[in-house]
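Contributing new records

If you add data, match the layout below exactly. Sequence lines come first and carry their own label; structure lines follow with theirs. Keep one chain per record. Anything else will be rejected by the validation script.
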Amino acid sequence: MQELPAYKNTQLSFEERAKDLVSRMTLEEKVTQMLHRAPAIPRLGIPSYNWWNEALHGVARAGTATVFPQAIGMAATFDEELIYKIADVISTEGRAKFHEFQRKDDHDIYKGLTFWSPNVNIFRDPRWGRGHETYGEDPYLTGRLGVAFIKGIQGNDKKYLKAAACAKHFAVHSGPESERHEFNSVVSKKDLRETYLPAFKECVKEANVEAVMGAYNRTNGEPCCGSPTLLKEILREEWGFKGHVTSDCWAIKDFHESHMVTKTAPESVALAVKSGCDLNCGNMFGNLLIAHKEGLITEEVIDQSVTRLMMTRMKLGMFDNPEDVPFTSIPYEMNDCEENREFALEVSKKTLALLKNENNILPLDKNKIKSIAVIGPNADSRDALIGNYYGTASKYVTVLDGIREAMPSDARIYYSSGCHLYKEKTGLSEPRDRFAEAVAAAQRSDIVVMCMGLDSNIEGEEGDVSNEYASGDKLHLNLPGLQQELLETVHKVGKPMILVLLSGSALAVTWADENAAAIIQAWYPGAEGGKAIASLIFGDYSPSGRLPVTFYRTTEELPDFKDYSMKNRTYRYMQNEALYPFGFGLSYTKFQYSEFKISNDRINSGDIIKCSVEVKNIGGYDSDEVVQLYLKDIEASVEVPKWQLAGIRKVFLKQGETLKIDFEVSPRQMGLIDNDGKCLLEPGFFEIYVSGSQPDERSQKLTGVNAQRETFEVVGKILELD
């Protein structure tokens, strides 16, 4: 009887099994397993596997799947539990598709279980084209939602991963897209530790994320996919990361072609692997054979990377009896099932943020409206529903579709695109060729719904977007093309105007703030997002979305796009008053905050603070509310944020219902990052605020609610925290 090879012995640890498997490979076989398109090794029973898969807001690029709202929209829910449930559905569909594809011997790209999501980069500048892939501008919110998403993707089985998540792009990465292959992000130790790394740290230390993807750019001179500082010192040694690191796609060749930190391809791949990059999205790692021959890298270092990769595949159950792996029984019918589509629609509703509602014009009574005009380039646009990195939905509902479905059959709906998204005309026509039609529609209607904004054809990733629109980044925060002129032209008709903004980032809609009757920020709301928007307009539910980014008044007030300093960036450091602040969003009901109490107004250094607040729904709608806690260090020895988010709770309150909500503030949250990048808890006074928004004057003016505030003192010696 032949002895069972150690790598097939399920009684051994995954590490022991992986090491045994790698020891049986030739050097050439090892190198092939470090490419994202890893070929089969039949003699060892290793099937081919393509590591590249995407799941930003649904299983992407692999055919039909449930398409949830884009990540920035998910962030607007401020709801950790909801994000976990979304990711759990995504991994269920991923498993359903993977096993069906395997049965059909389809091992193609986007068909695996290694999802290169979430994107936990900080959306530091609203011009960045890929910001809509993120959870916004705040490190705390990004960290909490990133952890929830990873846990939902990876599942909670004690032995096996449901799927493997990947935190990207590590690190200090947020544009410009046009220069990402040669750009050097220069960042202070303070900003690095205070803003750019915390979410990644939580993803590693709390969520045990299986993979981390390096960024294209350099950070302080080191290419991120070959950075000893980032990948060795911080990720592995300081944080104890045990999973694998993948490069961004074709990023390794940038080392010698664009960053000029190496001279040859073998030098580049040796630098990447020796720094801790295990997997190459691309084909550059084929040069490892040359690098080894030239003495640039040892086989032992290669073994280490391949072992990590085999461990991931083993954790996914790819070498074990399917009956022993708990997720293999998920049937294909779970993909794009009715239950998941209905859930995605409910998620869409929770993402929408109501930014203005003059004289409570919303919700509309559809039974009193005889005619309605739906105008704008995003009114009947599928592209404006889905963002980027998307799957194929089995059903799409645009804003026009949603309003049409919701309105009584005897009501007249007038539609005009009004203008192109960003061009001056369509085809052979003269500029403004749809203006007359839009005006005619508005003149014949009781109310006008303007659907404006962006889509992922112009706001996105370098290479994926229209080259005539800044390689995916925005040149400014204004509505592109003729949209602003169209808005003003239709407004002159004199009908009440509701503006629906579909975009993945903040726009400077100062004119609309003064002139539109209502404004809804709809993000890219998912496959049936138009139904969610119509339901909001007609009052089927109360909106609860909050802005995960600041809406600025002008482009001119922004710092240089290429400056990675946080000075005058985001709500934590900005100097001017926002148009719409981070954390802001209106409701159809009103909430009253009272009985705010803290456990102690004087604590020893290292102790936690407990606090509670009572929230009552005093309005006319049952509704969700996003309770937000902010912390301010009054006596810091270095510059610190004016305040920063330190707690979120999403609660549902019926009319008249009161709920007591508890928070804890940890010593780490009270700590500051000094100019050397150290986290210190200094004695002194702190302020703590609780409300449905930030405690800034603009938020309090827009909501009519003042934040509850308490002060406490930390006494004792300075503590250094990790």
